[in-house]
Amino acid sequence: MNNPSPASQRGGDSEASIKRGLWSSRMAFVLAATGSAVGLGNIWKFPYVTGENGGGAFVLVYLFCIAAVGLPIMMAEILIGRRGGASPIRSMGQITRRDGHHRAWGLAAVIGVLAAFLILSFYSMIGGWAVSYISTSATGQLTGLSADAIGEIFSGLLGNPWALLGWHTLFMALVVFVVIRGLRGGLERAVTILMPALFVLLLIVVGYAMTTGHFGEGVAFLFQPDFSGLTTAGVLVALGHAFFTLSLGMAVMMAYGSYLSKNVSIAKTSIVVSVMDTGVALLAGLAIFPIVFANGLEPGAGPGLIFQTLPLAFGQMPWGSLFGTLFFILLTFAAWTSAISLLEPVVEWLEEKKGMSRGKSTIGAGIACWLLGIVSILSLNVWSDVTPLGMFAMFEGKTIFDLLDFVTASVMLPLAGLLVALFAGWIMTREALQNELAMSARSFSLWYGIIRYVTPVAVAVVFIYNLL
Ligand code: TRP
Predict the structure, then answer these.
(1) Average pLDDT over residues 232-243
(2) What is residue 6's predicted lDDT score, i.e. its pLDDT?
(3) What are the residue boundaries of the structural domains of the chain, listed by start?
(4) More confident residue, 395 or 141
(5) Among 69, 179, 341, 415, which is best to mutate for testing ligand 1, by the most ligand atoms less than 8 A from CB?
(6) Distance 312 CA to ligand 1 centre (A)
(7) For domain 25-467, which architecture applies?
(8) What's the pTM?
(9) How far is CA 461 from CA 129, 234, 283, 371, 466, in A?
(10) Which residues line ligand 1 (CB under 6 A)?
């Protein structure tokens, strides 16, 4: 399949893409990209980082980052993928060779693949939490419990490395199972049904949240900016989360873009994906914070936030066990489709670089991620006091899991994103960009200005502030 000779790849994008097959429709691409974007980032991470960073002001910065940094970079990644017509690392190489740029730009894709690997290791552990809550809800264990009792169920799970290991193993096996069969198999169909279902279930929980009598408080927490609660570190988290939630900085959108047909508008597609992703995150926030306030819980409770609030809601609402079970099934699916997109670039890299078969690459990468995931599991219990970089004020009290999350989401993703923005804005030719984006002159200039100036400056400023 993969022709190693660059000369024969010169023929152009269409040739390469035809060889690799395309998405069956624009809708299929939108669904797959949304399936990757909508995941634990929206439902698990967004509420808890918002809670930790004081609410409204953080949300405002996050929305700005989505619009001014995330969306333009998503367009850049998709266009690079489509123009290169190959796997991410190869696509960047392809474009640099064809258009005579320095090969070092391929580094962006390399950072991305490494970040994918690191993220998947702990993503799978959190995915495992979601799976375990399917059975906790289905067996009715959450019904009518107090906030304290629910908190104990959660800390019981985190304190039990063997249980965590079991769920982590199950989750990773699910991911490997799909990736081994290639990207397009069941993915399109699964996403078509599951994404809308997740949306409806979130709406049901929001409906419940409205009955708690604290809905207004939740809305105010999310949408009334109070900048006194926001630190510069919080701004970095917002920026990093914009990358994380849109699946940027890791070449996933490049990989998906390479299967995209020429006559699809990259801009419109990216806007649809970003809006859906942001919509799910805000809905999750609206579902969770009223429950937090109604039960006197702590918005800054950290990574366990949704596992301590949503079960409360399900424990109290009519048909709660049913809705709860459904919800955690859908959360598992959302995490699953995202995790698939995290493993895919690693597998493609092994296939191309090491010449391994798909089966071997997938199993090899899966096992390596699974092993690394054990480190995150242990850092919640046995190693909860181990803070390897604790001597630096910035990392005080951060466990290995916290550090992995920080290094990937807040450092590697924005860094890779910065390289993508610079590559698209300053290295690729204007003709190449215009040709791919095919937008009106006005919209193109707007995007071009943003990707050349706004995006790199925003990322650089946030970084530098945090280093000082
Ligand atoms: N976007 C996913 C989420 O919000 C996580 C994810 C999947 C991701 N693929 C990615 C993050 C690629 C960064 C890069 O849960």
Answers:
(1) 92
(2) 34
(3) 25-467
(4) 141
(5) 341
(6) 27
(7) Up-down Bundle (1.20)
(8) 0.89
(9) 36, 14, 30, 36, 9
(10) 36-37, 39-42, 119, 244-245, 247, 249-250, 252, 338, 341-342, 413
